[in-house]
Design a protein that fits this description.
Length: 310
Amino acid sequence: MPTSTPGKASVETTRPAASRFRYAGAGLAALGALALSGCSADQLARGYLPAESVGATNMTPTIQSLWNGSWIAALGVGVLVWGLTIWCVIAYRRRAGDPEVPPQLRYHLPLEVMYTAIPLFMVAVLFYYTATSQAAILDLEQEPDHTVEVVAKQWSWDFNYVDEDVYETGVQAALDGEEGAEDRVPTLVLPVDERVEFVLFARDVNHSFWIPAFLFKMDNIAGRENRFQVVPTKEGTFQGKCAELCGEYHSEMLFNVEVVSREEYDDYIAGLEEAGQTGQLGTELNRSGVIETDEGRTGGNITGNGRNEN
Ligand SMILES: [Cu+2]
């Protein structure tokens, strides 16, 4: 027989449902306004990454989805945590007539297991996607169609086209307010849809080879050799820059990247030959005494080129 519990209803102090909906509605409206202010569906879809990165290389879809997935996961967790926090603050705030100390829930084992296990699971998921993406991005298993040595120096770049045995060399961009600075920086020319392996060196201090449209950068470390491969998949002109603070004119350490058809690439290489830019710009140009190239990691031309002359 069910019996009534006299007095139970008299301690009911929760707010009317309509009031709670008003709080939730205001919160959602604020979030919506934040999300929608000044952004298009396009920008949102690519997570505010540069527009020119869409389809730029074989790896940009992987990087794009890792970026977007991480943000969606982080925002989901954020909204849940903020939502629960705000709900607790409002629903369980102290009211007149409440006891001095509310019921204490410490040493609640299931709760503690839950808030250990769930973050571990989330970190494991993020780790999995990061590790698999990174392994794909840094994979060197395939035979490249071209090898380009990217030699960073204060404050410009040399590009050695290893298979073609030609080079391009640059000087820093003089950013003096005059138009056309981008025409005076070195240009890296790559054939579209062909796999290129970059071999990164530094002549003096550490630098970083960054093509923002490729959504990827890698450091040029003094005395080390770093490598990565990529397949540019979209013709066009992109900007490149140094992404490691390397001294006074770091901001002028700029270059262009032109992804062109195979015919244009061959023309470009022929032009370098005609200009007499044959051979490779090796370690003989390194700043003496600063660099000791790591002998155990030879691979590119530069490591075996004139290193005894220093
Ligand atoms: Cu630099």
